[in-house]
Task: inverse folding
């Protein structure tokens, strides 16, 4: 309770309000509420995807200019009179030097349930009278962040005004991960048959690979056929080889103890339980989100390397029906940027999501 009271002392200013709230296992979740200069119409809790992210969510190409994706979105929300709630993933220290960014002991506690509970603690603080006291709250999620939001819905948490996000995961984690691991390359090779003659030539690969999800691997050589063309049978054989390999990869992953560090003890980014969930969790995220009578808006990049749009569309339509709006952005990737995975977000796509959150919170205010 004291933690909430301390965080609430500066609510009269438009300076960021920092908070530190306990999760269910006692781990303290740190974050901040970025407040607009004008009176706030509501709050948006921002939920990061896979990775050791602090509240800024730095997600740019390795070796390139750092891209603070969530800080960027927070500024867009503030410009619309919305308070943005950002928090650090457990085990990650905010803006710390590279050698100090990770708390190795705490990072290993990052199971799927604990990350859900961390989000729940932030959501409770945002709504609580001794916290931020926001009456209208929406969620903005990126990628796996949608899974955390869905798991929170399954606990019976109060419904938000809306759930909006990019690269949104709507299918079940197992299906999505299998596509990433075993189907992304063959899908990309088929998509490169631009003239529709049933074969993909090396010329088509050279000219178009960068526009497909397979570009995430950053290499072209494995996608060049030794004889110059990929036939339909060649690509089907690639699928068969991955299907044969998948059970062994799954068995290897599941053999590790749940409480162990992932990927290793030297640089743990999470728990093995979390890693294994990509082979075990068959609950569609859209089915969890459907437990709330809440509109869901998912923005997907046409060349997304992580959350394949067709899978998300199918799961979303099956469980959410008319409550779901899906926007597929031509030529964009997982973070609605030009890269198949990384940011920065394209400004028009980011503004569209910020506008949708504004309208959802405005509707909530009118209904209150």
Result:
């Amino acid at each position: 309770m004291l933690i909430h009271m301390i965080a609430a002392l500066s609510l009269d200013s438009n300076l960021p309000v920092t908070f530190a709230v306990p999760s269910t296992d006692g781990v303290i979740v740190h974050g901040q509420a970025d407040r607009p200069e004008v009176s706030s119409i509501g709050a948006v809790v921002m939920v990061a995807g896979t990775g050791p992210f602090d509240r800024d969510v730095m997600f740019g190409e390795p070796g390139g200019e750092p891209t603070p994706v969530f800080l960027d979105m927070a500024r867009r929300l503030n410009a619309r009179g919305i308070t943005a709630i950002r928090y650090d993933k457990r085990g990650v220290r905010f803006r710390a030097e590279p050698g100090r960014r990770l708390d190795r002991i705490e990072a290993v506690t990052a199971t799927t349930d604990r990350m859900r509970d961390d989000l729940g603690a932030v959501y409770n603080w945002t709504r609580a009278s001794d916290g931020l006291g926001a009456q209208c709250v929406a969620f903005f999620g990126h990628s796996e962040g949608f899974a955390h939001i869905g798991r929170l819905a399954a606990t019976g948490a109060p419904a938000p005004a809306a759930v909006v996000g990019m690269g949104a995961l709507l299918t079940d984690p197992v299906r999505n991960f299998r596509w990433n691991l075993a189907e992304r390359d063959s899908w990309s090779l088929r998509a490169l048959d631009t003239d529709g003659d049933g074969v993909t030539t090396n010329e088509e690969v050279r000219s178009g690979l960068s526009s497909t999800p397979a570009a995430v691997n950053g290499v072209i050589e494995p996608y060049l056929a030794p004889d110059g063309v990929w036939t339909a049978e060649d690509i089907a054989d690639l699928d068969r080889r991955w299907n044969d390999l998948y059970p062994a990869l799954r068995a290897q992953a599941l053999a590790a103890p749940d409480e162990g560090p992932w990927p290793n003890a030297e640089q743990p980014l999470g728990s093995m339980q979390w890693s294994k969930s990509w082979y075990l969790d068959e609950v569609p995220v859209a089915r969890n989100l459907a437990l709330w009578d809440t509109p869901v808006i998912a923005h997907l990049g046409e060349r997304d390397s992580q959350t394949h749009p067709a899978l998300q569309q199918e799961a979303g339509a099956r469980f959410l029906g008319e409550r779901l709006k899906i926007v597929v952005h031509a030529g964009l990737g997982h973070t609605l940027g030009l890269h198949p995975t990384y940011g920065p977000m394209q400004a028009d796509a980011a503004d569209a999501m910020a506008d949708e959150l504004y309208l959802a919170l405005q509707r909530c205010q009118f209904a209150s």
Summary: DSSP finds twelve helices and twelve strands in the chain.
